[in-house]
Every structure is written in structure tokens, then in C-alpha cells.
Design brief:
The structure is a homodimer. With about 375 residues, chain A is α/β, with parallel strands linked by helices. Chain A contains 9 helices and 20 strands. An 8-stranded mixed β-sheet of chain A has the order 13-14-16-15-17-18-19-20, with helices on both faces. In chain A, strands 1, 5, 6, 9, 10, 11 and 12 form a 7-stranded mixed β-sheet that branches. At the A-B interface, strand 10, strand 12 and strand 13 of A face strand 10, strand 12 and strand 13 of B.
Chain lengths: ~375, ~375
């Protein structure tokens, strides 16, 4: 555990060590407005080289520099004669990227973009399409609902906010009861993260319309309890004692361990591991998305976990599968660890997201794969 | 109609004519962090004089000026030795205020605040408490749900996003059917506006817990169809042909005009008037919140409207009730117009929100009053 947290700190340092670039090379002028632009706005954009361009109207700006800060690199914006400022990044990975603007040294969101919660703040984000983008987009198929609600936490003596996804068929089958997945965000994200950048309703609506998964409910809660970063807090008891009882009395669930799954990304995956080891009596499927691994040795030490889990799903982005990254200790190989877990008799599954790093396209794809293996 | 639109343009000019201030007078140092600050952030704040303070950490800023832009006035922020920038406004009205920062002439959201959609963008907002604030806050009472979903618009040949509020009891009464209120935002706002700054779930949950209103569903849609400003677009047919059928097949509604209401604020109130005049066969309660008036003469020209409406609810903020303001023509008096409407035989009701202008506290209070008069 300590070793893991040290490697986390290392990653955080590497990520925050910002170098400075200038959108090198000749830029292909085929930019289109990204899905993340606010309605009627023209920023952010991306082109066929997967560069991101931001664009800002500030005719009266009395400013020395505006920079685009994306993927740990800074890019200068230039002003044109009409008062528009624009600048673009180097080619980036497909998928979702958080970014911000730096106006004379002040970090601010891009006023043109939609906002997403990550790094403990609401900030700008941009999606660069991938070949499988349509899986994560709103299609003309039956639409589920993302239900925001508050619940009372006896432990915290406070109201907490969560989202519950219900599939389109839920309201048409008043006598049917459903399994439930409890789904956690990453560190310094919150309950909005899966709902917004995670595209959870689109993933599920599209899978269900294609007949590729069983219908189930998804509860999205925030596992950072006391502050936005929330490291090493005990989320398990809140879930077990406050959240699950609320969900089981408010929704038509099948309220037993055989019909309850839990998954999380990055730090949320670590929380899932802690919860599943502590309470294998209430969970029977687990998913760790870029959230570390579970070794055969760890499983062997916890017979209730080892005998009780119907599925252990481990996933990473292809390009993050090097040390140091979240949850992988130096000299260990999560693919081999998953094989060892299988050899020990557990139903373990490893998924690798092509060409993606420690980011949301890895996690959307992980969810897309994981969903198809649940409650079968 | 034309005269009204001219007065709107006048108001817009007045609102955008920004003067420059400096947080005049001695400032009382009893600031507290506003409910609109992001978790873990310290901006915005307000004090007992109802001044708003923003606070920004930018130790490396190479910037000439940062200003707070609120209620059509600019206030300078000052830097302290630790790299924090802060500045405060003059005393403002109670209630919700949109605001932004201006960094060397570039308009950006406050990175510390939650974001709210208004003026055709996601931007910062701050609530200054009023004596009735608790009506609009999350209380430990049974909680309804705010359900985000998409529906297919045959007319637009596109998916559209809306919210549906369901009261806490909805999921516990699988055989009960409910009346529906269709609720519109103001110009350049969207379907999120009532859900977020409108505090609709809190208003309803608290009213229902106090036994002060009937349970009903509330559908929040965006009446700006083609662009974020959307003036004079025809929303009625989208609502009648696409939205109402979706709601009536997805939710347990009582799908007749006697159990259907429509309300809106500002420009949304104008849309409500147009819809109710065009389709009195599908609506029987209307609410115009700072959204103009309906005269006895107009009603007399439309017998289906005059005979069919069970309630016409007109409201304004006390300090906006002067000309020019939205929907009030020079020389007319909406209080007297409502009296005339009553005298003509209609059930009309006028509500005035104490000490508020053309802003969200007026509309939260209007909703609080209107809700108690519906479906009785």
C-alpha cells in the first residue's frame, strides 16, 4: 500500500511538470468544433491530426499572453486583427482531455467549453473522436434516465448527492426488479464525472439497444468524503450502511450480493478493492479500471472474497501500462497477475484499451466491456 | 409585440452598460463562503452587508488587472503578498447573481465557483441569502429526483435533452398518475437553469414535506430551439407534438388539459403566453414570472383561452416593476391588468416578490407561490 502511494505521488509530479510547446509543425486546417463546445460557441476544436485548437473573442484584451494548457504542455495563442485569439496543441491521443487557459499567468476555464469535474475543480474538456466514438454518443435509441437525488448519510449526518442511471425499460416494467452496479469516479473527481465525461447513459443505452447487455441500474456516488481529493477515506461503510439501503428502498432492485457489482477508475478502483475485500458478503462482481490489480496471493488471504466473487475485471489503457502508473508496482505485470488469478480458480478478465493512457477513453471502453459481462 | 421587443432591446442596453466601481465604503469583515463555491474552494463569498467577494490564487500571475464584473459594475481585485487576489462589490440585492472575472480584459468564469447557464453561457453565480433561503435549500425531507433524459423531436429531427422532476412519493406509488407542469427558463438560459439556479427540486421537496402543495411532475425543457438566444421561435409545436407525447408515455401522467400547467420566466413567460393562446385545448393553468402580462382585452379575443384557463398567475420582482422592464409596456400597470382580468371573470392572481429585481430569487419565490395553487 505504501509503495503504491509513493508511485502515485511520482506520477502526480510527472503529470504536473509542465513543459512548453508551440503546436510544432505545419497545422492542417481542417478543424471542426468539438462536441464539448457550449452551444453557439466555437471552442474547443480538433483537426484530423488530433490537434486541439481553442478560440477566444477578446477584442479589448490588454494582455501579454494567453496559453492553452493541455496534457502537461503549454501552447501560445495568437491574436488576429479582429480580436480573436487562437492556438493549437501538438497532435494528442484520441479521447477526452482536460485543459485550461492561462491568461497572463492566471489559470481559468475556457469560456467556450462545457465543464467537467476533475482535478478537484470544474474545468474545460475536449473529446478527440476515436473509431469507436459512436458507442459513447447519443443515438436515436430508447433513452434511459440519469436521476440526480440526495440521500441522508447517518454516518456523515449530512445529505449527499448521487446519480442513478435507470435503463429505458425500467419505467415500462413496474413489476421487474434489477441488479445494481455501484460505480466510483477517480481521485479528485465526483459523482458527475461518470455522468458527464464518462458518458454512462450513452454507453448503456447503446449497449441495451444492441441487445449486448442485461439491463441494470448504475449508482454513481462520490467516494471523496471529506475533501475533493479524499485519499484513503473509508467509503465502504457509507455505501453499505447509507447508500445501498436508500437505493434498495427507492428503486426496484434485487437486493442481494449476487445482483450487486462495484467498479471504479483509478483511485476509485482502489476503493472498490478495499470494499470488496472488506465486504464480500454484499458484492459479487468487481471492476478495477486503471485502478490497480488484485494478485492471487491477496485473493488467497481472503477466502470469502476468493470464493465469493463471480468476476474480477481488471483493465488499463495500453500506453499507461508502464511503471510508474497508478496501481502498478515496479517489476509487476498486471496481465500476468490476472492470469495467475485465473489459474488460482477465480473468474478474472483483463482488458486493454488500444492506444489510450490514464484517461476517460480507457474508462468508457472498460465500462463498455465490463457491462457485457455483468449479471449473466 | 414590436413595442415589447423594442423595450427588451432597451433593457439589454441598460444591463450591458457597465460602469466602474471600487467596492465603496468601509467593508465589514464578516465574509462567509457562498453555497456556490466549488467544494474546497473559497470563492465566491458574501458578507452581512450583502457584498460579494471573489478570491483567486494566482501567485505567478503577470497581470495588470483582475476585475469582478457583477450587476453591471466592475470592481478591482488586489493582490496580497501570498499571491491571493481578492475584491468585493458594493452591497447587492438578496438572491442569485451571475458574475464573471475580467483578467486583463479577457472575460472568464471564476475558477472557484459552480457554474450556471445564463446569458448563453456557463458562468459563475453567487447566492446572497434572504430571510426565506431555507425554502430553496436541501433539507432533511423526502427527496424527489431530477431526471435527465433525451427525447426524439420529429420536427427538429434531433434528440433534445430535458429534465423531469418527480416527487419522492412517485416511485412508492406505482399505480398513481400525476399532473404535469411544463416549465420554461428565460432567454439565453436552458433546461439546466430551473434545475440548478432555480432550485426546483428543493422548492418542491420542501413544499411537499410541509404538505403545502399537491404532488406533480415538472418537465424542464429549453425553448431556445435554434440558437442560445432563440427569440420568437415557435416552441409550442415541439412541446405539443414531441415532448408531451414522450412524457405521457414514459411517466405516469394524467394526460388531459385539466392536469397540465405551463409556466416560464421572462422570455419563457412570453412563450407560455403564446402556447396558451395557441393551444388552450392542452393547457389549463399558466404562470408568467417576470414574463409580461395578459390583458382582459387579449383574453376576450380568445374565448377558448378565456373560458378554459383555471388560473392565470402573473408575478414580478418588486424593484423591476418599473418601465422599461421585460414585458411591461410604458404606461401600463400589471397589477391593474390582473385586477381587470379578474373582473372579466378569469381566476387571475398577482404575486410580487419583495425587494427583488429581474432575477432568480423573484422566480424561485414565484414558483413557490404558483406551485401551491396548482391542481387543487
Amino acid at each position: 500500500m505504501n509503495k503504491l502511494l509513493i508511485s502515485l505521488a511520482t506520477v502526480a509530479c510527472i503529470i504536473s511538470a509542465v513543459s512548453c510547446g508551440s503546436g510544432s509543425g505545419k497545422v492542417r486546417e481542417d478543424f471542426v468544433i468539438a462536441s464539448n463546445a457550449q452551444r453557439g460557441q466555437e471552442s474547443p476544436q480538433y483537426n484530423s491530426e488530433r490537434r486541439v485548437r481553442v478560440r477566444l473573442y477578446a477584442p479589448d484584451a490588454n494582455v501579454k499572453s494567453i496559453k492553452l494548457d493541455i496534457d502537461a504542455k503549454l501552447y501560445d495563442l495568437k491574436r488576429n486583427r479582429y480580436g480573436f485569439w487562437a492556438g493549437e496543441s501538438d497532435p494528442l491521443d484520441e479521447g477526452f482531455h482536460y485543459y485550461q487557459l492561462v491568461v497572463d499567468g492566471v489559470n481559468v476555464p475556457d469560456p467556450g467549453s462545457e465543464y467537467y469535474y476533475g482535478s478537484a475543480r470544474w474545468g474545460s474538456g475536449v473529446d478527440i473522436p476515436s473509431p469507436d466514438s459512436e458507442l459513447f454518443e447519443v443515438q436515436k435509441v430508447p433513452q434511459g434516465q440519469l436521476r440526480g437525488t440526495y440521500y441522508w448519510s447517518e454516518e456523515k449526518q449530512a445529505m449527499r448527492h448521487c446519480f442513478v442511471y435507470t435503463p429505458a425499460e425500467y419505467d415500462r416494467n413496474p413489476d421487474k426488479h434489477y441488479p445494481v452496479l455501484y460505480l466510483l469516479p477517480g481521485g479528485a473527481e465526483n459523482e458527475y464525472s461518470w455522468a458527464r465525461q464518462g458518458r454512462i447513459a450513452q454507453i448503456m443505452d447503446n449497449l441495451l439497444a444492441a441487445g449486448k447487455c442485461e439491463p441494470f441500474l448504475i449508482v454513481m456516488d462520490n467516494c471523496q468524503l471529506e475533501d475533493p481529493w479524499g485519499w484513503e477515506e473509508d467509503y465502504t461503510s457509507i455505501m453499505a450502511n447509507d447508500l445501498i439501503p436508500m437505493v434498495d428502498t427507492t428503486f426496484r432492485t434485487i437486493s442481494d450480493r449476487d445482483h450487486r457489482a462495484m467498479a471504479g477508475l483509478s483511485y476509485g478502483g482502489l476503493q472498490v478493492k478495499w470494499s470488496a475485500f472488506a465486504r464480500p458478503d454484499i458484492i459479487s462482481y468487481v471492476g478495477l479500471f486503471s485502478g490497480g490489480t488484485i494478485t492471487a496471493e491477496e485473493a488467497a488471504e481472503n477466502p470469502a472474497f476468493k470464493d465469493g466473487m463471480k468476476l474480477v475485471f481488471i483493465s488499463f489503457g495500453e500506453t499507461e501500462l508502464v511503471w510508474p502508473t497508478f496501481g502498478i508496482e515496479e517489476g509487476t505485470d498486471p496481465v500476468q497477475q490476472t492470469e495467475d488469478l485465473k489459474a488460482s480458480g477465480m473468474n478474472a478478465h483483463f482488458y486493454l484499451s488500444p492506444r489510450t493512457h490514464h484517461e476517460w477513453l480507457s474508462w468508457r471502453r472498460s465500462m463498455y466491456e465490463f457491462a457485457q459481462m455483468l449479471f449473466r
